[in-house]
Amino acid sequence: MLEMTREEFEELVAEALDRIPPELTRLMDNVAVFVEDEPSAEDPELLGLYEGTPLTDRGEWYAGVLPDRITVYRGPTLRMSETREDVVQETEVTVVHEIAHHFGIDDDRLHALGYG
């Protein structure tokens, strides 16, 4: 398995977030991004997870709720990567994938766009 400290991985996630176009980041609302070492035991190879209410599903009722949560998992990403460049690429794909869920884009559409 490729070695990378948690701090290095967090920096890669931050850099991937920085590459999201500003016109999209301005539209993001009530969402926080986290890095965790491992996902739950039920899905040990999960690279990222979006938990919350997509922007497309929010209505007048949406107020006073906790932020949506995007989590990027370090362990599975490192296990599937052979080089640092692989980690950079996979981290960027994962970040875009989970942000797309925040915008209401489903997995089928993301796979069709190459963000599977």
From TrEMBL:
Which CDD domains did the record assign? MMP_ACEL2062 (cd12952)
Give one Pfam family. Zincin_1
Task: Provide the protein name.
Answer: Metallopeptidase family protein
